[in-house]
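Q: Hi! Curious about what SRPBCC family protein looks like structurally. Here's the sequence.
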Amino acid sequence: MILNFSFKLIAGRGGLWCKFYLFRTYRAVSKAPVDVLWKKLINLADVSWNPLLSSTNAPRGLMPKPGLIYQVVTRLIPIPVRVFVERVLPGELLSIRLLAIPGVENRVTYQVESTLCGTYVSFSVTMQGLLSPVLWWFMRPYAARVAAQLAQAAAEQIGAL
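A: Let's find out. The predicted structure is below.
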């Protein structure tokens, strides 16, 4: 787990501004190969492994592409949240931005890499905005489990085959 936290006070025209920035990365190792982990991750219709999300409106078989916008419903607050896919490197990286609350910018990055010890999956959360500390307080216990549950779901899929 890596934590980077920054709080800046900025003086400018018209007053004093504050900027909050949080970056946290969680990693997990899986016995599943990169291909299986990647297929589990990019299946936008299946979010059963994700402790933060309960459902999505993405149709089955839809592959993430930069510029794609779809909706998910969170487990914390059952309201639809728009998701914007920013960057996709097949088999390696998926970066999305969650457009939920004005005043909070939430960027999530999943990274998959193969090593001699197994396959590592990283889940990084970047939050900016004044309401970020409040939102982080609610989602922190769930965010800590995302990478581990993705690795576990991919390993279970290998066991089922």
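A: A fun detail: Residues 2-6+22-160 form a domain with the Alpha-D-Glucose-1,6-Bisphosphate; Chain A, domain 4 fold (CATH 3.30.530.20).
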